[in-house]
Amino acid sequence: MNTLLTIVLILLWVGIATYGDTMFKSAPSLGSGKFVAAAASYLATSFFAFWAFRLQQFGWVLILWNSVSLALSLFLSVAIFGEPFTIRRRVAAVLVLAAVLLTE
What we know:
Layout: H1 2-26, H2 33-55, H3 58-79, H4 87-102
Helix pairs in contact: 1-2, 1-3, 3-4
């Protein structure tokens, strides 16, 4: 049960952090609503991170977080921004995932 909860926490953590990243990049100023929303997103992710690290080993959480972040960034770049999913990108993704898994 702890493993499933940790996976859900990491998925939420990555999703909300990615939302915060996009809000930071589009915020026109420090006082804008987008900047405040991005800061609140990052604040929320700290609770997910704390909870995930309390449930599982440090290395396992980092491996899963990096893997989910990579997958989400590839998906967003292709689906939202229309980047081509070339063979080089696929090979790079596989090599990065292999490197992440080998670090444990």
